[in-house]
Specification:
The chain has 230 residues and is of the alpha/beta class. It has one domain (32-228): Rossmann fold (3-Layer(aba) Sandwich). It is built from seven helices and seven strands. It has helices spanning 32-48, 60-66, 83-90, 102-115, 147-159, 176-179, 193-199, and strands at residues 73-77, 94-99, 119-123, 135-141, 161-172, 204-215, 218-228. A seven-stranded mixed β-sheet has the order 3-2-1-4-5-7-6. The longest helix is centred in the N-terminal third of the chain and has 17 residues, at 32-48.
Length: 230
């Protein structure tokens, strides 16, 4: 498997819910087999204790935006244990969930079976994976990559949307280091409004801004992007 950087390393916080929830959404910025091995071990440890690495509820921002969308085809890119994919499937979406951790994908598959949901689970490096067909929606929660790699992923997402299809993305903002709490502390994998606007230039941007998210008594700073294919 080639390099599958997608989330803060296991020893870093990756807060991913809007509101007060501090559970995160994914795996590390390390590369190759060592990166996936580290996250496979973390997911396996959680599964062994009948728990999960991330919240079982969907990301709050993504849920708040997508709740009013008519169901169609969707991709949950860098899905972790699949919390957003499962939520989408419960709402009638035909979902493909993609992650580089085979253990996380298996955890998501078990939850889907338990809930009686159909999700297409794919183990793949999200930096190189392309949907086999155009989709109506792609959601991305906390895919923390160097700017050029994230821009490449967003370009692939843009080209994989149906006309009128939507990209909904949330990530840790670079200002979170100085003014926020939690999240990766490596500025190379943090986003900004400007960097996401450039990366999504091929789409019609409906919203691209910083979003504050409460974490206990403090506030984390995310960047959010909502964009549509013309």
């Amino acid at each position: 498997m080639k390099r599958a950087s997608r989330r803060p390393p296991p020893n870093e916080s990756a807060d991913s819910m809007s509101g007060t929830d501090t559970n995160g959404g994914g795996s590390g910025t390390g590369g190759g087999t060592s990166g996936s091995d580290a996250w496979n071990a973390r997911y396996a440890e959680a599964a062994a204790s009948d728990s999960s690495v991330w919240s079982l509820a969907p990301n709050g921002f993504i849920a708040s935006i997508v709740a009013d969308f008519a169901p169609g085809t969707a991709v949950d890119l860098a899905c972790g244990e699949g919390r957003n994919a499962l939520w989408l499937a419960q709402r009638g979406w035909q979902v493909t969930a993609v992650d580089f951790s085979a253990v996380a994908i298996e955890a998501g598959r078990r939850r889907a079976d338990h809930l009686g949901l159909e999700v297409n689970w794919v183990v793949a490096d999200v930096t190189g994976w392309v949907p086999p067909a155009l989709v109506d929606l792609t959601v991305v929660a906390y895919l923390q990559l160097p700017a050029t790699e994230l821009a490449s992923v967003i370009a692939t997402c843009a080209g994989s949307l149906e006309p009128g299809g939507m990209l909904v993305l949330i990530s840790h903002d670079i200002d979170n280091i100085a003014r926020g709490v939690g999240g990766p502390q490596n500025p190379a994998v943090l986003t900004s409004v400007d960097s996401l606007r450039v990366a999504a230039a091929d789409l019609e941007i409906e919203r691209c801004e910083q979003l504050q998210r409460r974490v206990g008594d403090a506030m984390a700073i995310d960047t959010v992007l909502i964009a549509r294919r013309a």
